[in-house]
Amino acid sequence: MAVHYRKERLDRGIKARSEDIFALSSYREMLYLLLPRALPVIALLSLPVLKGIVGLYWEKVLVITCAIALLAVSWDLLASIGLVCLGQALFFGAGAYLAGFLNHSLGLPPFLTIPFGALGGAVFSTLLLLPVLRLRGIYFAIVTLTLPLLLARFIETTKILGGTEGLSALSPLPNIWFELYIPVLALLVCLFGFRRLINEDYGLVLQGIRDNDRAVMSSAINIYRFKAQAVFMAGVAGAFAGAFMTHYYQFVGMPAFALDYSVLPLTCAVLGGVGTFAGPTVGAFILVPLSEVLRAFGTLRVVFYSAILIICIVGLPEGVFPFLQRKYHQFERVVKVE
Amino acid sequence: MIASMVVYGLVNSVILALIAMGFSLTFGISGVANFAYGGFYLLSGYLTWMLLKYLEFPLALAILVTVFAVGFLGFITYWVILLRVRGIVLSEVIATFALGVGMLEFFRWKGFVTYEFTLPSFIKGGVEIAGVPLDYQRLFIIGIGLALVLFLYFFTHHTRIGLSFRGIAQNERTAISLGIESDWTAALSLAFGSGMAAMAAIVILPLGIISINVGYDVLLIAVAVGIIGGLESVPGILTGSLILGYAQVITGMYLSPEWMMVVYLLAIVLVLAIKPSGLFGKFKELEERV
């Protein structure tokens, strides 16, 4: 008879010690908990300072990565309430155009247009999505997929907001430190804010709506209210990215509603691991620099994202971050099947 | 004016119905996601074009080869991609959506965007109906569209395969217990849906040039028609496309052609707000959507 083996996974001792009992007894245990959280934050915060070493080109990539990561994190917030959004470009575009309009027509400085763009863009997209919040699953996905495309058409047709030419010569951000630190800080705030939020009672309701919305309804909770609030919060993150990038590029145009801003965050989230917030961020920090390297291929990059998306969905459904998390917390060994 | 509105509204409606049918057969009737629909649609256009141009096939043979090849590709797609995520609806949607986007953007990268990409119409010339000039191609579209609607109705109500398509969507376990092989049925449904996309593409594309954005529009149209009429119902598809088709033509005449795409969004939002299951949809669909 052939001897069969199987893999067994066990929690590391240090995980069991430091997880539930909050009497940490050694520096080792404290570091075990602290390092995975603190290291990325320190790395993110120190990257802008190192601009002399990494070069301005890669600092630009950092800014774009943070913007995409913001969109991906906001996608993840929507996904954790069960709303799968195939059109993050809606939030991005709304924020971008609002900030651009405020700056172009009213001459407001970036310090006003970015917050107004973020909040106003979020309000606008929430109002737009309000009638379809009753939908769930794929039907919501379909509507969100079409909305940014339609808005782009609308702008093209009515020639408002600069039409196909867009609005250019917007005011730049005052200096390079703002350019680099605003997106990094915004990403950190969103990442840790959303993580905290989803672990609160409030987040429990959100996850309840994802898992079984009827049960939540039967507890006399108005799920549409919660859905609208979640869309607004996700919208603020997405629209902020849009408003910031408007001033970063000093230009806003129809590419703000382009499919890239919908597909790329989605790919990041699926690659990194849905539902963890850190996952989509990790995904963004893998994908965006990679796509910069592949810039020479032009539109073939979207094909490349699609391929990654399919491979991840089919072959690595849990995502990179949960995989790393598992390796960190658990060890594996081969045991004989009796 | 009125006569041309009636005639072109009908043509437009039948075009919408043709586009929506394959999608509805796969996604509505058998419950298998096929968001690569736009990709399959354009692929058929380019495949026919290449067969005609490079291999110099006669038109009829090129059409036959394209329909079968694209249908077979749909069949393969099920076994390679969809089988592994079957049952996780959102993964199905994202995987097929990615496949479609990948195909479309690949064509864009290969440079299939210039004016030389047109398909020949079957018969040149035209007739005049009630003072409205109408070319034979459009007449042909009406004929083939109505024939396909009838075929689809008959197919899903009176043949073994068609009934099993509806069976796996209604209750997969019961279907299995009655001897319906659900994987084969789903794969066949994807093959039929893709084949219908190919047919629609070959009939409709001669009216204009083949462009990449058509691929995205096709998906939008299919979804809009499905949502309005009720995804799983053949009369619903017909009604949905009639409503949308005429609404579009009227907007195009009285406002401007650019507003025609906005009609879709308005129609989707209105129908979802008033009767979320669509005009002909059943309660089960309502439960899935809202």
What does this protein look like?
- The complex is a heterodimer of chains A (338) and B (290).
- With 338 residues, chain A is mainly alpha-helical.
- Chain A is 70% helix and 5% strand.
- In chain A, helix 5 (89-105) crosses helix 6 (110-129) and helix 5 (89-105) packs across helix 11 (223-249).
- The longest helix of chain A has 27 residues, at 223-249.
- The mean pLDDT of chain A is 87.
- In chain B, strand 1 (126-129) and strand 2 (132-135) form a beta hairpin.
- Chain B is globular, with a radius of gyration of 19 Å.
- Chain B has helices spanning 2-29, 37-53, 59-85, 89-110, 136-158, 160-170, 172-177, 182-204, 212-229, 234-254, 260-274, 283-289; strands spanning 126-129, 132-135.
- By secondary structure, chain B is mainly alpha-helical.
- The longest helix of chain B is centred in the N-terminal third of the chain and has 28 residues, at 2-29.
- The model of chain B has no long low-confidence stretch (mean pLDDT 82).
- Helices cover 75% and strands 3% of the residues of chain B.
- Chain B has a two-stranded antiparallel sheet.
- Classes of the chains: A mainly alpha (338), B mainly alpha (290).
- Chains A and B meet through helix 7, helix 12 and helix 14 of A and helix 3, helix 4, helix 9 and helix 11 of B.
How far the N terminus sits from the C terminus of chain A, by CA atoms, comes to 12 Å
Shape descriptor of chain A: globular
Unreliable parts of chain A: none
How large is the share of residues in beta strands of chain A?
5-15%
Oligomeric state of the chains?
A: heterodimer
The SSE order of chain A reads EHHHHHHHEHHHHEHHHHE
Short description:
Helices cover 70% and strands 5% of the residues of chain A.
